[in-house]
Amino acid sequence: MTYSRTIPIEFCHCDPAGIVFYPRYAEMVNHMVENFFLEVVGHGFGPMMAAGQGMPTVALEMAFRKPARLGDRLDWTLVVEHLGRTSARFLVRGEDRVEARTTVVWMDRDFTPSPWPDAMRQTLEAHHA
Amino acid sequence: MTYSRTIPIEFCHCDPAGIVFYPRYAEMVNHMVENFFLEVVGHGFGPMMAAGQGMPTVALEMAFRKPARLGDRLDWTLVVEHLGRTSARFLVRGEDRVEARTTVVWMDRDFTPSPWPDAMRQTLEAHHA
Amino acid sequence: MTYSRTIPIEFCHCDPAGIVFYPRYAEMVNHMVENFFLEVVGHGFGPMMAAGQGMPTVALEMAFRKPARLGDRLDWTLVVEHLGRTSARFLVRGEDRVEARTTVVWMDRDFTPSPWPDAMRQTLEAHHA
Amino acid sequence: MTYSRTIPIEFCHCDPAGIVFYPRYAEMVNHMVENFFLEVVGHGFGPMMAAGQGMPTVALEMAFRKPARLGDRLDWTLVVEHLGRTSARFLVRGEDRVEARTTVVWMDRDFTPSPWPDAMRQTLEAHHA
């Protein structure tokens, strides 16, 4: 399964060249992961933190293939590209403009890397590409 | 008439105290004005700029009444509080958390303050509070 | 006394019109207040939070008088415009481009508004304009 | 030669976990490249754009090795890791916290990839690691 969302390119995203400023793409990648966990995995970042859990990003790779402009509405997709015992790498794409790989680690109460809980793992596996 | 949108409070908006970092509210205010013009007034910021037009913000006042937290979904509203010949002041509210007044000036092709075109003025008047 | 800093206008600050995107000015105002407290008042925001103290911003007014452009180096100044028992309003200016008033409240350990500690009050009074 | 700058970690950079929000690292990487070009290569991004030139980022890889916290002052370094005919890859490091590789392409007046002008190439070669 693929998780998808549309992100409109707004004024705040764009640089003096009139295209998306690439650090804003990093925010969009985070937005995709955050909402995938909120809507699909069933773990919002707020309750996660309140429970002493966390999911830090340890690596991010982005390729900017074509510029996106103010007014574009980009369809984004997210799949799990690699699922480790305590980590996951997501492939997050914004059409033919940007392709990102982001790796997170699951941290449980003692804030050390911990195996994915079963229910989370099943959802992540269902989105394995 | 009142223009309204819901903005979810996401990780990117929040500061080390776990509440919205107030410069992010300024982005939300801009988002409200930008989408009001795109969806209701019928002037996206992209085509505006391509036509040599613009609508710079000349003043912004914000009162932060109660904190908003990660996971909150804030219902925002926008009305026209004052309509001048070449300017407009919007009252933009995010529930009981934040109240903003933002003043813009309409700039036409020579990039000088210009009277609102009739169609725009009518829409703005319809949203006068 | 006036506290001052120079802020170079960089690519990340600028919008498709090639001028500073005004929510970035709100970040600059916060930067001025934060560094005034770090360098002059002697209270970094990190130690403040670690001590269960805080200084939320309750109001911000900004007037954008002239655009600032990529490559400009703006000289900013900060003075205390009003000093209350538990609050302070700062006047923060970026040359002839932007003028901001920002109001903060001092919160002590129970995270309720508290009178400024004597040492802080003295420093704030010394910067009263 | 290595280009270096210190970046203080401020309130605006930090997330609800009290550490740098990783999209802000992408801004810091851009800040390093931008200031290297301004101060060392002698090409500010403003004059570049005014001359119809540009230097889009086509790829960014970041590894987040250890968290940086509010109040830290990170020493950053930049070297040229690979110098192509029309492109360059920079290795940009923030101490032992973050390691980034960012690839840019030189675009001349027709906004197509163009060979680095001689003077720029010499400076880039002098910073080849």
TrEMBL record, chains A, B, C, D:
Protein name as annotated: Acyl-CoA thioesterase
InterPro entries per record: 4-hydroxybenzoyl-CoA_TE, HotDog_dom_sf, Thioestr_dom
Pfam families cross-referenced by the UniProt entry: 4HBT
Gene Ontology MF: a single term: fatty acyl-CoA hydrolase activity
Domain Thioesterase positions: 18-96
Domain of life where this protein originates: Bacteria
CDD domains: 4HBT
